Amino acid sequence: MAQSNIPITVAFGDGIGPEIMKATLEILKRAGAPLDIKTVEVGEKVYLRGESSGIEASTWETIRQTKAFLKAPMNTPQGGGFKSLNVTIRTSMGLYANVRPCISYYPFVQTKHPKMDLVIIRENEEDLYTGIEYRQTPDTFHALKVITRPGCEKIIHYAFQYARANGRKKVTCFTKDNILKLSDGLFHKIFDEIAPLYPEIETEHWIVDIGAAKIADTPENFDVVVLANLYGDILSDVAAQIAGSVGLAGSSNIGQHGAMFEAIHGSAPRRAGQNVANPSGLILASIMMLVHLGLVDIASTVHNAWLKTIEDGIHTYDIFKEGISKQVVGTKEFAEAVIARLGTKPVNLKQAHYQKSTQVLHHELKNTSQIKTEIVGVDVFVEHNKSVDELYQKINQFSNERIHLSMIANRGTKVWPNSMSETSCGDNWRCRFIVKDKMSSLKMQEIVELLEKFAKSGLEFNQTELLRTYDGTPGYTLSQDEQ
Amino acid sequence: MAQSNIPITVAFGDGIGPEIMKATLEILKRAGAPLDIKTVEVGEKVYLRGESSGIEASTWETIRQTKAFLKAPMNTPQGGGFKSLNVTIRTSMGLYANVRPCISYYPFVQTKHPKMDLVIIRENEEDLYTGIEYRQTPDTFHALKVITRPGCEKIIHYAFQYARANGRKKVTCFTKDNILKLSDGLFHKIFDEIAPLYPEIETEHWIVDIGAAKIADTPENFDVVVLANLYGDILSDVAAQIAGSVGLAGSSNIGQHGAMFEAIHGSAPRRAGQNVANPSGLILASIMMLVHLGLVDIASTVHNAWLKTIEDGIHTYDIFKEGISKQVVGTKEFAEAVIARLGTKPVNLKQAHYQKSTQVLHHELKNTSQIKTEIVGVDVFVEHNKSVDELYQKINQFSNERIHLSMIANRGTKVWPNSMSETSCGDNWRCRFIVKDKMSSLKMQEIVELLEKFAKSGLEFNQTELLRTYDGTPGYTLSQDEQ
User: Fold this and answer.
1) Inter-chain contact A141–B427, Cβ cutoff 8 Å?
2) Which of B181, B215, B318, B453 is best to mutate for the A interface (most A CBs within 10 A)?
């Protein structure tokens, strides 16, 4: 044989994972996919061995040396402050693009949305999934939503590249930039910067709440949808479910240095070991992997055999419907039915015909190093359990000829100057100090001296945020009627 | 007349606002609602007069002196850093509960979900809607998600009280606490604390992504759903849309010191002044207001007349459907049709029969003042554009006999010790310093001294986060494999 096999990493996972992985690998083998499979363990068993990350150093090495990682669902232990292993793999490997096609298979799988055929492209490294959280005070908890320019540029370019490689016509962007003017504002702004580079692709933007409503109601109006991590998480589950079942959706996680492929559903421990689970999500993920590896013909063969199986009404229990399905089968039998159909094509459903994989291009990122920044103030968060006036009396004296107290806010609402007695306040207060002469920016030493005054007065600053301008534009939001 | 009128505040808003408000007030008047209407201006016109909050001091006074505020949709100027006026009113007035019934009117209004009848109870003061955002570096933007114990307690109590007052059987809670273990973890924990106080109400919890999928697919399985602000914003739009139209949904904003009632749709400037807009969202909001004011009989009368109008196929253009609707009418004519039906009841749709309003009870909040806190470290965020090793060299020397560098992370992923070359790093780095002897907590002065070392080395700390324990439990999340 002239062709050498392509090395991939495989993890069998927990719960129903081993069964559906076995079924999937059998199909790939029988389809003649030239794969050299390296098996690793991740998840529950590894945690139980005392490895708190859920993944061992040798496993990282295997993943790194192979072209792709096919992963079955895993369990993450509840509680204990463990970071999600899925998030760890995605971020450590730099797998920034999560791709989830959501397609309905009407009339063979029940759905209220027969014409649905969309792809969610979800940002995979940032947003609230960075998992950075602090208990600021006994009553107040903060989580950080992180959005970066390179992160936005990469995912938005990927969405357009995907559309181009897959003959899709439109890319839709969702943000909440009417509220999150800086962070979601950046995502939207970069979408508008990049869209003109792909003039053949139609574009649109929706505020995420109404956009979500439109996806849930008329998903057939969407094609490719690009979203930040949290919105993408919620809406890809919505889209997969209303297409027919989350059990029918596979996904890929793509980065510059690797790629991971998985079903979007979980490990379903209650169904484990019974040969009932639907392997379709993982099978479809493995097809995405074949395309990624350039094995486009085998990918088309497996996909068409799977479509024919669905069309023939050979269904696992989760999508079985009297009057539509012909035969209810187990995990193993479903895989055998797909294998028996290798080489055939669906008659009613749209046939698969892959031609190329989506290029992960290395676009030059916008250089922001020339931006001139100046320090104009600091927000200091302190715990306080009395009135705003008492806090004001304490901290106003920290003002000096260079810097002055300009605002006290509680949960985002300005409560000094001009508070309203109806405003409900928590135990964490944000004290904004601003430079008096905006022509003369502050030095870090001045910030340190201000913080020292807090410390000496017995006020523990549980959080500080430097207030900067960037080429003269404030890098912070204003409260209501703040100038 | 023995009965004195109840004072309410009314704002006619922008776009289609004036038309739908006029229609709504005419119905209330003809139904005999004993209201004394004080009209105020908020929104676009006020901004244009130079009042950057969009609301004047005298308006606050009017809202404060009346029992309820009925508000038509407004425009918020784009850009310019203005905080959303809706958010300002809700938070300044302490209107913590946003209530949105989402009901289908099958077969009179087209829907894929004929049996849907759920109520979204959305937390209204916290979460990312606090609008606290910072540009940390040229490339990195942060937004703060704020969750507090009193905020969670109030909204979750309200959800159960609402269920009780309205004869509903189940309250479902959605969070993303598998990722947001502290913030969403608190919301879930408090839900579990409060649920047993309402033993007659069934409860359940879903992770928000799969829960959203279930609402979008089978909304008939939900009854009352309680959510944090962002999830509630997205899912109430989803639920309203799939019930039939966001044009058919009203909402209330309830607090201890006031209440505001509004349609959930926007001001639709393109439809303004044409007598075509559907006033139903605002009419249903006004019915919620009547119930809140204790005018339950008039509320039932107006609601039944509205239901009969819908049932009779008298529809505005937005819900008009050939074969279902009988007559397409304008805003004014729709209101006249409702007025003509005052005193009648629907035959097919479920009749309204209000008996009492939801009590806003003043539950005693859990006292957390006895929790013992200790300072065990600090996270310092700095901009840096070279390798993690260079950053490590610079800052490791800040360690002393009391405190040491324990981790450097980038976008939530630990990159020192043991970085992976594939991890993609932004320009903002989180440096964690931890006390060496966990038996001997840190003083604020020690934190100040550490920060001074950063400042003197030319490292601008754009954010600091104090690391505390609360009764011995860390008030901060760990990175992957951090101990």
Assistant:
1) no
2) B181
In a 3-state reduction of DSSP, which class is residue A325?
coil
Bridge pairing between strands B250-254 and B259-263: antiparallel
Compute how many other C-beta atoms are within 10 angstroms of the C-beta atom of residue A22.
15
Asked if the Cβ–Cβ distance from A444 to B460 is below 8 Å, we say: yes
Q: Which helix (H) or strand (E) holds A101?
A: strand A97-103
Give CA A1 to chain center in angstroms.
Answer: 41
**Closest alpha carbon to B45 in B91, B12, B82:** B12
**pLDDT attached to residue A2:** 46
What residue type is assigned to position B298 of the chain?
I
Q: Do A145 and B144 touch (CB under 8 A)?
A: yes
Return the pLDDT at A54.
81
- List Cα–Cα distances, A144 to A129, A269, B123, B228, in angstroms: 9, 32, 19, 16
Sign of the four-CA dihedral A196, A181, A256, A32 = negative
Cα distance from B220 to chain A (closest Cα, Å)? 14
Considering only CA atoms, give the Rg of chain B: 26
Q: Where are the alpha helices (DSSP H) in B31-148?
A: 44-48, 57-65, 85-92
- State the CB neighbour count (10 A cutoff) for residue B344: 15
Tell me B128's DSSP state. G
Inter-chain residue contact B91 with A470, CB threshold 8 Å = no
Dihedral angle of Cα B222, B226, B232, B235, to the nearest 10 degrees:
-10
What token pair was written down for B39?
Answer: 């009209």
Please write the tens of the pLDDT for every residue from B265-298. 889 999 999 999 999 999 999 999 999 999 999 9
Entry pTM: 0.94
Are A145 and B145 within 8 A, CB to CB?
yes
Identify the DSSP state of A359: P
pLDDT at A161: 93
Mean pLDDT for A181-189 is: 97
Whether B478 and chain A come into contact, CB under 8 Å, resolves to yes
A-interface mutation test, from B84, B141, B374, most A Cβ less than 10 A away: B141
What's the pLDDT score for residue B360? 66
pLDDT band at B81 (very low <50, low <70, confident <90, very high): low
Give A465→chain B minimum CA distance, Å: 5
pLDDT at B241 over 90: yes
ipTM summary value: 0.93
Measured distance CA(B219)–CA(B206) in Å, rounded: 14
> Which of the listed ranges A177-181, B268-272, B403-407 does the model predict with the highest average pLDDT?
B403-407
Which chain A residue is nearest to residue B186, measuring alpha carbons? A141
State how far the Cα of A237 lies from the Cα of B174, in Å rounded to an integer: 14
**Above 50 in pLDDT, residue A391?**
yes
Write the CA distances from A345 to A299, A308, A320, A352, integer angstroms: 13, 6, 21, 9
* Cβ distance of A133 and B451 shorter than 8 Å: no
The terminus-to-terminus CA distance of chain A in angstroms comes to 73
